Amino acid sequence: MNKVNYMSVADEAMAKIKKGVFLTVKAGDRLNTMTIGWATIGHCWQKPIFMIMVRNSRHTFSIIEDADDFTVSIPALDMKNAVMYCGTQSGKDVDKFQEPGMETKAAQQTHSPIIDLPGLHFECRIVHKSAMDPKFLEESYQHFYPEQDFHTMYFGEILECYEV
């Protein structure tokens, strides 16, 4: 494990996030991973923050609502098939780790594990969440929500950022 400064890898991380990376969350004995393609890395409240979005219609939403933290794993290798699988299947119906042959590994500071793969990993403690209010969403962005399944935004204080 090689600790890295989160801002020194932010541009690289954001470029990969646009193609899809893994958000993993655990609450009690419930565990799920999903593909995310929208996120923000920055600085708020004098802390390093990783902001993710989860649609209320997703299985992960039912878990993250009860969680204290989450991890984001950004593969160094091409994992396009696993990213696609985890982005198109529901953890309510399938084990998203089994089919693509992925395993988890204990995180350093969070209850939620990381995906055991070479790459960049962020461990985040949820410090704020905010459900989107569609009345404040710019009209030209409404097409992202044809089924009105709006996101909840989760702000996670970055506790650890490292490469394995």
Number of domains: 1
Q: Which stretches of 5+ consecutive residues score pLDDT under 50?
A: none
Q: Judging from the principal axes of the Cα atoms, what is the shape? A: globular
Distance N terminus to C terminus? 5 Å
Largest pleated sheet? 8 strands, antiparallel
**Could you name the CATH homologous superfamily?**
Electron Transport, Fmn-binding Protein, Chain A
Mean pLDDT: 95
**Number of contiguous helices:** 3
In helices, the fraction of residues equals 10-25%
- Structural class per helix/strand content? mainly beta
Q: What fold name stands as the CATH topology?
A: Pnp Oxidase, Chain A
- Beta strands, count: 10
What does this structure look like?
With 164 residues, the chain is mainly β. It has one domain (2-163): Electron Transport, Fmn-binding Protein, Chain A (Pnp Oxidase, Chain A, Roll), CATH 2.30.110. The protein is built from three helices and ten strands. It has helices at 10-17, 59-64, 80-88, and strands at 2-3, 21-27, 30-36, 39-44, 47-55, 69-75, 104-105, 114-115, 119-131, 151-163. The strands form two sheets. Strands 1, 2, 3, 4, 5, 6, 9 and 10 form an eight-stranded antiparallel β-sheet that branches. It has a two-stranded antiparallel ribbon with strand order 7-8. It is globular. It starts with a strand and ends with a strand.
